[in-house]
Amino acid sequence: MGCGSCGTTTGSSPSGCKSNGSCGTSSCNKLNTYDWFKDIDLPENYTPFDIIEIRFKGSRKEFFKNVNNLELYTGDAVVLESDLGHDIGHVSLTGELVRLQLRKAELTENSPNIKKIYRVATESDKEKYTDFKAKEPSTLEKARTIALELKLEMKLSDIEFQADGKKVIFFYTAEERVDFRELIKRYATDFKTRIEMRQISYREEASRLGGIGSCGRELCCSTWLTDYKIVNISAARFQNLSINMLKLSGQCGRLKCCLNYELDTYMESLGQFPGTEKVTVNTKIGTANLQKIDILKKMMWFSYQDKPGDWIPIPADKVTEIIEKNKRGEIPETLVDRPLGAEIMSKTSYKVDDMLEDSSITRMEDKNKERKQGERNFRDRNRPDNRNNNRPDNRNKPNNDRPRNPNPNNPSANRPNNPNVNNPNRPNNERPVNTNQPNRPNNPNQQKPKFNNDRPRNPNPNNNNPPRPNNPNRPNRPPENPTNNPNPTAEKKD
After folding, report:
1. How far apart are the C-alpha atoms of 178 and 1, rounded to whole Å?
2. Is residue 289 over pLDDT 60?
3. Residues contacting residue 206 through CB under 8 Å, at least 6 positions apart
4. Which residue of 243, 333, 367, 393 has the lowest C-beta tally within 10 Å?
5. Which region, left, alpha or beta, applies to residue 481 given φ > 0 means left and ψ of -120 to 50 means alpha?
6. Cα–Cα distance between 289 and 292 in angstroms, integer?
7. Whole domain around residue 5: which residue ranges?
8. Number of H helices and number of E strands within the chain?
9. DSSP SS3 for 334
């Protein structure tokens, strides 16, 4: 949530930014520390703690001493002492909780690194501070271009101008040591100010840049996490997580800090297991090996050596009991409580509980697929629009209304009489009479015989182009070329 006591807003904005973008700190809810003593009435003779926690751009925080006993509140902009000139920061914490923050940062009240607070920032101080902050994006882009021209193995991630413009801090990340002699000369010539190069870790870089994690929330390092502990890959193994670096790595490219959050709980639960690797138990049926464990459910899965596909879940305390019996020389009948009999004592007929229910490769297929397909076909056949009696043009399917043949050996039996079959009165060359078609008028122009028996056959079968008979219906055509000589090589005779 946004801050509720910010005093840097002006105009019609409400007291505190409330995450509406009008906060002058430009880093609401950035590594805030909740003050539990702000609503408690202090004694009259109580002297407030004179060290104040100040927040700068990003997640950088430092401690300053309130030598002038100024009345400061969270979010106030103050002018601070610097190595060169002065700087402006915002109050992030006051009171007794600063003592705990000093102890956490391994500092004391009389440490020489603690500088002084001059005064509360005025409007002119804020305007000058805002002008220099507006130059940061263009300056960072130009600085990256110069670093690329010099071919330096480094990455500039952020930049921070001092409030008076006398110093610029460049935050960078690099795998190896970088030679900055030529780079600082170029920066000092172009920017006309003092240059400070500060190397940060990859986690601190992600903290300064911010972002959204895979959980859907803002990064822990940019909201509340102040110290970065070492995260080992063994933390993922203890929690039975798959070793996939794409999923286990954060935006910084390193292992996620949240892997350490529940590690203590898992380590405590693992102490109640008899072991996590190479655990074997002996029974009268055979020797079983450990396959998998569930830490939170406190369950262990075992499988016999002759049946590695059958996994049996057993509670961790039961496994511990069986291991103790094996150490004393006692061998239980089975891993689970079953009544003994002739079938169980024989390995061939004994079937252990399978976690996957079936080790066949077709176990995921639908066993009722054929039955469902048969029911679907039966429904399709009995639909009103698919019945044979409603489709008179369907002649390939059987007709239930047609009487069956009583004599299957005689296919022509029980057929209706066809007047065209075995009719002695019908001439051989006459077309069969179709009684189902209406009578058509005899039109010689429209009806042409399929076979013309009066046409003379070819007397010369070897000649493929015999002379055609004259067609009386075809009009006489004049010769195309009457002067054409059929034999062009012959000479004309007078």
Report:
1. 40
2. yes
3. 219, 221, 222, 250, 251, 252
4. 393
5. beta
6. 10
7. 1-121
8. 11, 12
9. coil
Residue 444 within any structural domain of the chain: no
Distance CA 154, CA 197 (A): 11
Of 81, 97, 121, the residue at which a domain comes to its end is 121
Confidence of residue 465 (pLDDT cuts 50, 70, 90): low
476, two tokens: 């006489």
Average pLDDT score over the chain: 75
Residue 16 to residue 11: CA distance in whole angstroms:
12
Contacts of 356-359 with C-beta under 8 Å, sequence gap 24+, read 356/309, 356/311, 359/309, 359/310
Residue 169: give its domain's CATH number: 3.30.300
Residue 34 near residue 95 (C-beta atoms within 8 A): no
Q: How many residues does the chain have?
A: 494
Both 156 and 88 in a single domain?
no
Q: Interior CA angle at 376 toward 371 and 379, to 5°? A: 125
pLDDT at residue 437 greater than cutoff 60: no
Work out the end-to-end distance of the chain between its first and last CA atoms, rounded to an integer number of angstroms: 127
* Within-domain flag for 31: yes
The overall pTM is greater than 0.90 = no
Q: Identity (one letter) of the amino acid at 294?
A: D
Residue 418 placed within a domain: no
Residue 46, pLDDT score? 79
Q: Strands 280-282 and 155-161: what pairing?
A: unpaired
- 44 pLDDT more than 70: yes
13 plus 106 within the same structural domain = yes
Spell out the residues 6+ positions from residue 163 whose beta carbon is closer than 8 angstroms to its own: 79, 85, 86, 87, 88, 125, 128, 129, 132
* Domain presence at residue 144: yes
Out of 190, 207, 224, pick the residue that ends a domain: 207
Higher-confidence residue of 476 and 186: namely 186
Helix (H, G, I), strand (E, B) or coil at 249: strand
Phi/psi of residue 44, nearest 5 degrees: -65, -40
Question: Are 7 and 94 within one domain?
Answer: yes
When pLDDT is averaged across residues 156-168 and rounded to a whole number, the result is 91
